[in-house]
Amino acid sequence: MDWGALHTILGGVNKHSTSIGKIWLTVLFIFRIMILVVAAERVWGDEQDDFVCNTLQPGCRNVCYDHFFPISHIRLWALQLIFVSTPALLVAMHVAYRRHEKKRQFRKGDEKCEYKDIEEIRRQRFRIEGSLWWTYTSSIFFRLVFEAVFMYAFYFMYDGFRMPRLMKCSAWPCPNTVDCFVSRPTEKTVFTIFMIAVSSICIMLNVAELCYLLAKFFLRRSKRAGNSKQQPNHENKEETKQNEMNELISDSCQNTVIGFSS
Amino acid sequence: MSWGFLRDLLSGVNKYSTGVGRIWVAVVFMFRLLVYVAAAENIWKYEHDEFECNIKQPGCENVCFDHFFPVSHIRLWALQLIMVSTPSLLVVFHVAYRENREKHHNQKLYRNPGEIDGGLLCTYLISLILKTGFEIVFLVLFYKLYNGFKIPHLVKCDVRPCPSTVDCYISKPTEKMIFLYFLVATSCLCIILNLSELSYLIFKYSLKCYLKRYMKKQQ
Question: Which site among A87, A115, A203, B82 is 20 to 30 Å from B63 CA-CA?
Fold first, then answer.
């Protein structure tokens, strides 16, 4: 159980996302999770061992470390990534629910059901409209909120994004104001700035996706209002074209959502 | 053998769960298992090495650490995750038994072996009760063992061979406390989900039973 499992779960959601959503997912996995696992964890690996204070007083180092790092950067990022990935599960659950309903219809032998077999239902890609649009949009909204909250928490807890080389500590049992030295401060600052920058890119992608969905919604509404006066065939042609475009845009990622699709 | 095994197990369970059951599986995966593996495990990794007492007496640190942490938080957390996920296996076994029976008799005995009705409903309800029971037991255990959910940064120890009352410092107490509260919160969330699933199932099937009886009376 590790980040790979998250990748499998979210890969299934990928099929039903917009193009911007797919870019967001790629950025998340390559520039955040992979960097966290491959690089950042090593940089912060020896953080308490190499946190050195200019005193022999036992306990002073522990207390000072706890005072300056209530929660480690690396843990905060791990939590941020988990929270930011979770709203996508809402979409996965909604899709699974729709599939379940369609399967039920198919089993009952409903005439309205246009599928030839269960496999087709399993493979079908749902368009983002109706209630799925609301679920998808709220998931993006929650993603934005979580990203912003964590960025703010980071800034608030560490007084900015720079890691100082030296910290002055006077917490008990340190006998007086003691100099404590952080390990690898420059490397940590570089990675912190990198993760913050990628976080900001993800926020911008989410905002863009939100605007795109809202624009699509209002456009569809105005088209529907306009087309209700014209013939219905015209609207179907437009929708088929849109469908084909969406099929072309979606990539060949065939990861199925583990468990959620059955 | 690692947490991946538990993940595969729970994915199998997901197939035979209700909607609330699937939300429970998602919460266990994302907020408990993943947080444990990705974040919490590393906080407690060097807890013994970083536990420091203000004394040079050999053995004093060991004895004090053992006195204050009979079972480490992280081990209790892992045990809790395993125990809480296991009752779902009862449902998987029951469905497998049903499918086996159908194969053995070579005829369709059930409308759908995975549908929650009859005996499978009882098994499912029992698994829910067990899950909730384990969650509560572990929460109470945490509370009793560690005097609440707080982790102090300093503990005073006077166990032999420490010559007098000695100050011992715990590493990363604030970070540990944050994750402990996170554990408690997700535990409570899972308890609420289990209880609502329990009441939903009981309500649904009592209504079904009542309606059936009512229809029979009408006829």
Answer: B82
Coil, strand or helix at A59: coil
Contacts of A58 in chain B (CB under 8 A): 52-55, 167, 169
Is residue A9 exposed (0-12), middle (13-18) or buried (19+ Cβ within 10 Å)? buried
Distances (CA, A) of B65 to A103, A221, B69, B159, B162: 57, 67, 6, 10, 12
Owner of token pair 């997912």: A25
Q: B31 vs A82: CB contact, 8 Å cut-off?
A: yes
Residues in chain B: 219
Contact at CB, B30 and A78, closer than 8 angstroms:
no
Render pLDDT for B62-121 as a digit per residue (tens, 0 to 9): 899 989 998 889 989 998 998 998 898 888 888 888 888 888 888 777 777 777 778 889
Task: Check: CB of residue A201 under 8 Å from CB of residue A219.
Answer: no
Q: Collect contacts of A153-162 with beta carbons under 8 A, ≥24 apart.
A: A153/A76, A154/A73, A154/A76, A154/A196, A157/A70, A157/A71, A157/A76, A158/A73, A161/A189, A161/A192, A161/A193, A161/A196, A162/A189, A162/A192
Q: What are phi and psi of A2, to 5 degrees?
A: -160, -160
Structural domains of chain B in order of their starting residue, each with its CATH number? 3-218 (1.20.1440.80)
Q: How many CA atoms lie within 13 A of A10 on its CB side?
A: 25
Cβ of A259 within 8 Å of Cβ of B169? The answer is: no
What's the pLDDT at B7? 80
Nearest CA in chain A to B49: A49
Structural domain boundaries in chain A: 19-45+73-165+185-218
Q: Is B2 helix (H, G, I), strand (E, B) or coil?
A: coil
- Give the count of beta carbons closer than 10 Å to the beta carbon of residue A154: 20
Residue A131 has a CB neighbour count (10 Å cut-off) of: 10
Of A61, A71, A86, the CB nearest to B178: A71
Domain A19-45+73-165+185-218 adopts which CATH fold?
de novo design (two linked rop proteins) (1.20.1440)
Q: Cα(B198)–Cα(B17) distance, rounded to whole angstroms?
A: 12
According to DSSP, the β-strands at B166-169 and B52-53 are antiparallel
d(CA A44, CA A193): 15
- pLDDT tens, position by position, B119-158: 889 999 999 999 999 999 999 999 999 888 889 999 999 9
- Whether the per-residue pLDDT at A250 is higher than 50: the answer is no
B16-52 tens-digit pLDDT: 888 899 899 989 988 999 999 888 988 998 888 899 9
CB B125 within 8 A of CB B187: no
N residues, chain A: 262
